[in-house]
Design a protein that fits this description.
two-stranded antiparallel ribbon; Growth Hormone, Chain: A; transmembrane helix; 507 residues; 2% strand; single chain; transmembrane; mainly alpha; disordered N terminus; 2 strands
Length: 507
């Protein structure tokens, strides 16, 4: 079954564009422009890590706050509000990002986050706190779709995997900042109890305020402009980027550039979006859903119950949890940074399957040692550091997979669908399941939960090994031909190798 091309506005024939601009972006060496992209846009992951960590760190302070006096149930509701905001924000802003453009949305989403997290610090009761946490989550969810799309579309193909994994790993820089900040700001000797938690939420607002001006210098994605018929602006942007590189002494060869033919469209109907995701690219969707589900359960189930394991089984004081979170965050950050390059050199399929399988094996081993009471609080922390060195790279590769495996016109919404699914599952099922196991105070019960997580990761490793996409060092247009690309027989155009490869991968 095929889907007819989207009609142009006023039923006029859509503009036919022949261009080499995507190839020109892929041939660029790494430069200051790419570093600006990474810093100004990649901060999203850091902010999410900060928010997630702060939510746990300030829980006790919210319960003792003279203004709020939250119960445990209230703290849980606030966490659910953040997750719901992230899911709905990803879906809503993802749709808008594909329709209105990357640049416009990454200003809107960061501004929303900045205002909402600052407002959270000024909350006066449960309803206001939940509302502001919902809006904070919506800003973060929207950031993921707009930011990941933009980074993918500007990064040279040969380093796209390493770049994407490295950026995703900064989530744990944010987690470390949140842990360190909470240790200081929640100290009653430094700030009154009702001021400390408020100061914690201002950390994200201050960071966002510093990053927002940097985004002024980031242009719209030329790839997005091309599919919407704005070839002139797309060419101007690419030529401007090339001029910067030439001025910095980088020679740019013009040979062997692949040309692409597109029919411009103003939008992609939702019918075509879902047809593409679940019919044309159904195997890729299966891979994406499996990877996201497994890592979400594995990650969130353990991370959100990290403190409970330390307090209930190792009797660590609640005020000292942050010290154990710092080495955990370090292992999570180093994993994608160190292993990321291998995803471009060895390949996506092998590395994704390998990191998922290694995470499962190591968790099973450490879980057995935990069940047999052979670990101390120090060796348990070291075990988690090693496990999540691999698991962090695995989780990051899931986001990489869903952001590069689908056509340009639906990239942001595809990211949103899989992000929302993973976030909802990881934020609801995983922590609740493990929380009930920990409440039994039986190590054997907790170990059974670890085995479930390991089983999911092994299943995901198998799916990736069989049906994963070998996207390393390939242009996005090669990995998934744009929906607006001209068919082989249309206008007498001969099909490219990229289109033939894409058709082979669609079944």
């Amino acid at each position: 079954m095929s889907v007819p091309p989207t009609a142009a506005v006023d039923d006029q024939p859509a503009m036919l564009i022949e261009t080499d601009l995507p190839s020109r972006l892929d041939r660029l060496p790494w430069g200051r422009f790419h570093t600006l992209i990474v810093v100004a846009l990649g901060v999203t992951w850091l902010l999410d890590g900060l928010e997630v960590t702060l939510a746990g760190a300030v829980a006790s302070a919210l319960k003792t706050s003279p203004a709020l006096r939250f119960s445990n149930a209230d703290v849980g509701l606030a966490g659910s509000a953040y997750i719901a905001g992230a899911v709905l924000g990803a879906l809503g802003f993802g749709w808008l990002t594909d329709r209105l453009g990357r640049r416009r949305l990454f200003f809107i989403t960061l501004t929303l986050y900045l205002a909402a997290t600052a407002a959270t610090a000024l909350s006066w009761n449960l309803m206001s706190f939940m509302l502001f946490r919902f809006l904070t989550g919506a800003g973060i969810g929207g950031e993921y779709t707009a930011i990941n799309s933009t980074i993918q579309e500007f990064t040279p193909a040969r380093v796209r995997g390493w770049t994407d994994l490295g950026i995703n790993g900064t989530f744990w820089v944010g987690a470390g900042l949140g842990a360190a900040g909470s240790l200081v700001l929640l100290d009653p000797h430094l700030l009154p109890s009702d001021w400390g938690w408020r100061a914690c939420f201002f950390i994200g607002a201050v960071l966002a305020l510093g990053i927002l001006p940097m985004r002024i210098w980031i242009p719209e994605s030329p790839r997005w402009l091309l599919t919407h018929g704005d070839e002139r602006d797309a060419r101007t942007i690419v030529e401007g980027i090339e001029t910067r590189f030439r001025d910095d002494g980088h020679p740019l060869a013009d040979d062997a550039l692949t040309r692409l033919r597109l029919r411009a469209r103003d939008h992609t109907p939702l019918r075509e979006v879902f047809h593409t995701l679940f019919n044309v690219h159904r195997r890729r969707s299966l891979v994406g859903l499996t990877l996201m589900t497994a890592q979400a359960f594995f990650y969130n189930a353990i991370f959100f119950t990290y403190a409970l394991v330390l307090t209930d089984f190792y009797h660590v004081p609640g005020g000292d949890i942050g010290w154990y979170l710092l080495p955990f965050a370090l292992g999570n950050f180093l994993g994608p940074l160190v292993l990321g390059r291998l995803f471009d050199v060895i390949g996506r399929r092998k590395m994704i399957a390998g990191t998922y399988a290694m995470s499962a094996i190591l968790l099973t081993l450490s879980g057995y040692l935990f069940e047999q009471q052979l670990l101390t609080v120090v060796t348990q922390t070291v075990a988690w550091m090693v496990i999540f060195f691999f698991a962090s790279a695995a989780a990051s590769s899931a986001y990489l997979t869903v952001s590069e495996s689908f056509p340009l016109e639906i990239r942001a919404l595809a990211i949103a669908v899989f992000y929302a699914f993973g976030t909802a599952l990881g934020g609801i099922v995983g922590p609740a399941f493990f929380g009930r196991l920990i409440d039994t105070h039986q190590r054997s019960e907790v170990f059974s939960g670890y085995l479930v997580g390991s089983g999911l990761m092994l299943a995901a490793a198998l799916v990736a090994a069989i049906w994963g996409v070998d996207a390393e060092r390939k242009s996005l247009e090669h990995v998934a031909a744009p929906l607006s690309s001209v068919a082989d027989e249309e206008d007498g155009v001969v099909g490219t190798d990229e289109k033939r490869a894409d058709r082979a991968a669609r079944t």
